[in-house]
């Protein structure tokens, strides 16, 4: 079964590009053009992960993230937020959300795919890392 990913961005080119890349990797993709639509789709489909732009009309990505986090049925959905270069979200604001990663635009598709993979398959990464020889790593550092 493939993971369902929600992409929320008001830039049609970005939505198309991300959708294409993720579908090539076997993900099921749902798209929205603003935070309100993204919130509604997240409630309806319960995606494994959402990738959202910060700056959008109607409801921005941060407002959507806060609203998703406040709802018991969507609070577990991890988010990756795409932000304009230099835009910062304070640590206290992040605590109101389930944003797991902030990526500044422009970004590489490889960076985004790596973040998605780490969030969706954390146990596989952990078991791969911990399956090595522990004697060499057990020096207390």
Would you give an account of this structure?
The chain has 141 residues and is an alpha/beta fold. It has one domain: Response regulator (Rossmann fold). Helix content is 45%, strand content 20%. It contains 7 helices and 5 strands; from the N terminus they run βαβαβαβαβααα. Helix 2 runs parallel beside helix 3.
Topology overview:
Elements lengths: L3 E5 L3 H13 L3 E5 L2 H11 L3 E5 L7 H10 L8 E6 L6 H4 L4 E7 L3 H12 L1 H9 L3 H4 L4
Parallel strand pairs: 1-2, 1-3, 3-4, 4-5
Helix pairs in contact: 2-3
In short:
With 141 residues, this protein is an alpha/beta fold. Helix content is 45%, strand content 20%.
Question: Main traits of this protein?
Answer:
141 residues; alpha/beta; Rossmann fold; 5-stranded parallel β-sheet; 7 helices
Structural class: alpha/beta
Largest beta sheet, briefly? 5 strands, parallel
Number of helices: 7
Count of beta strands: 5
Helix content bin: 40-55%
Apparent shape: globular
Question: Can you tell me the CATH architecture?
Answer: 3-Layer(aba) Sandwich
Q: Can you identify the CATH class? A: Alpha Beta
Helices and strands, in order, run as EHEHEHEHEHHH
